[in-house]
Amino acid sequence: MSSGSSNRKLEHIDISLREDVEGPLKTLLECVHIVHNAVPELDLSDVDLSLEFLGKRLNLPLIISGMTGGARGTENINAELAKIAEDVGIGLGVGSQRAAIEDESLRYTYAVVREYAPKSPILANIGISEFIRYDLSLITKIVDMVSADALAVHLNVAQELTQPEGSHTFKGFIKRLEVVMKELPVPLIIKEVGFGISKEVAEVLNGMGIKYFDVAGSGGTNWAKIEMFRARLRNDRVKERVASELLSWGIPTAASIVEVWNGAPKSTIIASGGIRTALDIVKSLRLGADLVGLALPLLKAYHYGTLQEYLAGLIKSIKALMVLSGARNVYELRKKPIIIYDPLKSWITQRDLKIP
Ligand SMILES: Cc1cc2nc3c(=O)[nH]c(=O)nc-3n(C[C@H](O)[C@H](O)[C@H](O)COP(=O)(O)O)c2cc1C
């Protein structure tokens, strides 16, 4: 039996690979300039970006953002992503596990990640609508399915509102969070999917005890765009219009990193949404991110069979940029001089935000 969630997942992957699903907003990382250090007085081998995350050691502050599982064939994508995560020593998320709750026979499409990445931190995943309506036993099942180190709850309100079959009810999240946080044996990561998290939201959730945020800001994969293409395929002109009206909505990734750093300064911040280059990664770390997540570029690299070379090149370039910044590690990087141009500068000023 193939559920609605399962077909939807395949359509999302297909559209993401076929169409231009990014922008029109930019991440605003292009407004950040780290000042070049011509005399860094350090060797490439001095750079150490390893860190502790969810009780495990990572070689680099990188995460493969949750994308898939949930339809037959997607286990191959997850297996490859898991192998490379384990190999390189980085973290890995799976896509929304709703499909396996609706159809148990799809469990293996997610569970495969633990098989191939026994040591990596793995993030289970569920959307806000399911999180509100699932009872604790279903949520525990989601975590156990991949022997997860944390549960990422994705706040995809904008996506639900543009989806032809999306949910329109979002009340009750805070109440549910209170209950689940007390009972779940693993931490929760509050994650967006491409519209960013504000200082105010981070403040409220951090006040409740949430210690992990994945900003997933605007400038990369745009779910309003993906749903606009899906609505067009269905000839649903009204939903296509709704989705197209939301294309420029959201908090650009660079702004969202700073927002969350101000709202929850002691939390672990994952920067994601439109992270495409080593320079994007180093700038995100400089702005306050502890880790950086990528989704679409890794799906494309998997699709074109270039996953290994893509990640190897990316990692070497991150280390080169650390040398050029004169920083051995993230702690030193945060003290290095930066220039911030408009419009990010105005965003930071008008929102009265500080930068590290
Ligand atoms: C094909 C595809 C499927 C995705 N599915 C999920 C999902 O099930 N759950 C989730 O939290 N995020 C999902 N995402 C969002 C990513 O985790 C990420 O937050 C977002 O794509 C922004 O990162 P990017 O610009 O690097 O793609 C998906 C992204 C893509 C491209």
Outline the structure in words:
With 356 residues, this protein is α/β, with parallel strands linked by helices. It has one domain: Alpha-Beta Barrel (TIM Barrel). Helix content is 47%, strand content 12%. It contains 17 helices and twelve strands. Strands 4-5-6-7-8-9-10-11 form an eight-stranded parallel barrel, surrounded by five helices. The chain is globular, with a radius of gyration of 19 Å. The model has no long low-confidence stretch (mean pLDDT 97). The site of flavin mononucleotide has 25 residues, from helix 1, strand 7 and helix 14.
Q: Can you summarize this structure?
A:
By secondary structure, this protein is of the alpha/beta class. It has helices spanning 4-18, 74-88, 98-102, 107-116, 128-133, 136-145, 157-162, 173-183, 199-207, 223-233, 237-245, 253-263, 278-287, 296-304, 307-325, 330-333, 344-350, and strands at residues 32-34, 51-53, 56-58, 62-64, 91-93, 122-127, 150-154, 188-191, 212-214, 268-271, 291-294, 338-340. The structure holds flavin mononucleotide (FMN).
